[in-house]
Amino acid sequence: MSRHLFRPWPTLVVAVALLIVAGGCSKKTWRPHDTAIYHYNRGVTFLENEDYRSATFEFKTAIEIDPKYSEAHNGLGLVYRYTGHTDLAISSFKRAVGANPKYAAPYMHLGVTYLDRDDYDRAVTFLEQAIKKDKNYADAYYNLGLAYYDKHQVSPAVGLLRRARKNFIKAGDINSQLWEAHALLGVVYEELGDWEKALIRYNLSLEVEPRQPETWEKLGLLYERLGEHEKAELCFSKAAGLKNEFRSLPEP
């Protein structure tokens, strides 16, 4: 399987809501300057709207006003990552860590950026650090599972699949709406030969986000293996309908 099969979404399951103003900052020791907060929030808005030029300017403005503003460094790193400037992204995320070592998000973003580069060991290191900073960080568990799964694709090992399974389960337990974790758990269970649990996870994923042609196809193929041909055809029909719908959408 292509490592990108289950990645129509960004590897980073980032909700920009993670970029909250006071996230990870101790009010007892430091608070960003009000003007820096204003420009940071503008940067978040531009980032959400994919206006990367304006977001860059606003995050840099916030950093100029307050160089210790970890979230602003993290936001700038996200802009660089989304625009393909991974070296600059890594530098910004590391500055975010340096400004506030307790802030979990930049550790995760470092891990995902290294995962983009197929540097699985570094990815695992930073994602594990993100989890140490925040035990309930569903996105970090998801991406850690993805790192183990992708490493398994290069060097197959049951142990890596089991680690991927453990982290996907944890991600789904923390955030039941994280359909990506359920979908990839289905893939992992299939590879481990547990077809019943694979069916359960594919269906859980589709309950949360039914507009996934890839998952409908995987579910259809699994039903075929189980000899349930009518269910398989229904899944293939849903997948085909979604693909046609996506192809007919106007270009943004």
Give me the count of strands: 0
- Binned, the helix content reads over 70%
User: What is the terminal separation in angstroms?
Assistant: 29 Å
Structure class: mainly alpha
What string, H for helix and E for strand, traces the elements in order? HHHHHHHHHHHH
Percent strand equals: under 5%
Question: What average pLDDT do the residues reach?
Answer: 89
Q: In DSSP terms, counting alpha (H) and pi (I) runs of 4 or more, how many helices? A: 12
Shape: globular
Radius of gyration: 20 Å
Q: What can be said about the biggest beta sheet?
A: none
Q: Which stretches of 5+ consecutive residues score pLDDT under 50?
A: 1-27
Describe this structure in words.
The chain has 252 residues and is mainly α. The protein contains twelve helices and no strands. It has helices spanning 34-48, 52-65, 70-82, 86-99, 105-116, 120-133, 138-154, 158-174, 179-192, 195-208, 213-225, 229-248. Helix 8 packs antiparallel against helix 9 (179-192). The longest helix has 20 residues, at 229-248.
Q: How does the SSE layout of this entry go?
A:
Elements: H1 34-48, H2 52-65, H3 70-82, H4 86-99, H5 105-116, H6 120-133, H7 138-154, H8 158-174, H9 179-192, H10 195-208, H11 213-225, H12 229-248
